[in-house]
Amino acid sequence: MVQKAKILLVDDRPENLLALEAILSALDQTLVRASSGEEALKALLTDDFAVILLDVQMPGMDGFETAAHIKRRERTRDIPIIFLTAINHGPHHTFRGYAAGAVDYISKPFDPWVLRAKVSVFVELYMKNCQLREQAALLRLQLEGGGKGAVGGRESAGLLAELSARLAAVEEQAEALSKQLDDDSADAAAVATAAHLERKLTGLRRALDALEPGTGAGGPAVSPAN
């Protein structure tokens, strides 16, 4: 069973959190509430999230300060942040949001369909990265214990075939996602994330190909691209 992605919703107003849940429930992912910046940071200590929807105007620690803390932590710095704000102070205010690490900046009231579409892109990218990590873990097991004796050789060949098939499925899905991003004129941040995923897939494919019989499997392993 495929594990659902977690989406962190941060807003001090319960009615806003309820509205976000209503909009995003169609994605069928796990929605986690936080009513303050402090509560959001606490949730990020234990759980992994595909994307964070962060209200700018909050008492105490506002959205900008919360984002700054998120970006300072190694565990959470790469999580996409979408800022939500009910006010618009012009380009300077928007620039501050991007400078704080946001991948997008949406003013309220926002189009529910647009917000859902934007979030779904980052959820899909997150799921592809999870699949990629699984393939990399299997590949490491193969590198560490493959090719020991006749039985081990047969098991290695079977594992290689399974790895190759799984990786091919992820490659196909990533290619389709990249085409979708191009067609929809998606955010530059989403396109860049998809390109990063493709580079990692290419590195993993090279490492897997190097293990195939007759290609120098006993040589040094190729690490997936970062």
From TrEMBL:
Residues 6-123 form the Response regulatory domain. The keyword Phosphoprotein applies. Keywords: Coiled coil, Phosphoprotein. Residues 160-187 form a coiled coil. Gene3D superfamilies: 3.40.50.2300. One of its GO terms (biological process) is phosphorelay signal transduction system. InterPro entries: Bact_response_regulator, CheY-like_superfamily, Sig_transdc_resp-reg_receiver. The modification 4-aspartylphosphate is found at residue 55. It comes from the Bacteria. SUPFAM superfamilies: CheY-like. This is Response regulator.
